[in-house]
Amino acid sequence: MRGAAPREGSAAVAERTEPSPSLAAFVSERTRMVEEALDAALPPAGALPSPLHEAVRHSLFAGGKRLRPLILIASAEAVGGRASAVLPAACAVELIHTYSLIHDDLPSMDDSPTRRGRPTCHVVFGEALAVLAGDALHALAFELLAATGEPAGPERALWSVREIATAIGTRGMVGGQALDLQGEGRPELARHGNWPAEPGDGVYLIHSWKTAALLRACVRCGAILAGAAEARLASLTAYGEQLGLAFQIVDDVLDETGDTGHLGKQTGQDAARQKLTFPAVFGIERSREMAALHTQRAIEALKRWGSEADLLREIAQRLLVREA
Asked: What is the DSSP string of 79-143?
């Protein structure tokens, strides 16, 4: 099935074969900070109940890119904030992302045997413990968010809690997952008119909620906690929305064209389950054009910014051409 999608201007986005030295340094240093903070936030694997903590650590330290915490930190730094000040929130969004992956991989959901090149949590520890591991990560995430202090202050800390909670609720990540399951094998739902809600394509609704909502919240929370002014927050919100859509479109394409060994998970599962993905609705080549267009829009949202937004611009460019 093929549909139409909005077109505007040129979707050409500059591509780098390698990240700039500044982005490479940012990723290396901030990833190290996040890894150390995550390790410190979690109980040791041997602490009671040890099987639960082993399951949590199995999934959390499976080699993820830490994209969401990096985006949150990059947003904070773009408005003059410090990485150390937003580190609890950065860790929180990674805990939430990992919990969502554990639950998505369950047999009752996507039934995925591998994730990031290793057996999924339920394969190693059983379904019941995997559910509890996800629950534990979810709870710890809000414990960290609630501990966010200076220089954000209590009002902005509470604001960030509300942002994340909304982004992962029934009109965010969890709702998007429900729509994703509902849409399996039902191509008529690709057109959003068959779902009585906002105008637009059904596949856009699924992924705007399932993926883009949390990425947008990461961008917003970094800026909120760093004290961003309203005008800057508005442009960052637009950036985050477009970045999230581009990210998901590329992810959908990679599921059909990528290599299982390189991606660290089985490819072709979306098609096998007849999911409503961008390639299923629009085709692979049109999906690639759409990803480029949304990346362009993300970058254009920062057109009034100077060099302080260069890392955010390059992150968008790099995510467009990623292979995993």
From this structure: TT--HHHHHHHHHHHHHHHHHHHHHHTSTTTT--SEETTEE-HHHHH-HHHHHHHHHHHHHHHHH
Q: E strands of 112-238, at which residues?
A: 114-115, 118-119
Q: Which of 289, 252, 242 lies closest to 4 in space, CA to CA?
A: 289
Half-sphere exposure of 307 (CA within 13 A, CB side): 2
Report the sign of the C-alpha dihedral through residues 211, 87, 70, 235, in that order.
positive
Cis peptide, bond prior to residue 151, ω within 30 of zero: yes
Separation between Cα atoms, residue 296 and residue 275, nearest integer Å: 26
Residues 140-176 have pLDDT tens digits of 999 999 887 666 688 899 999 999 999 999 999 999 9
- Give the pTM: 0.90
- Residue 168 CB-density burial (10 A; 0-12 exposed, 13-18 middle, 19+ buried): buried
Give the Å distances, CA to CA, from 300 to 77, 151, 208, 211. Answer: 19, 30, 19, 21
Shortest CA distance to 110 belongs to which of 255, 248, 2, 284? 255
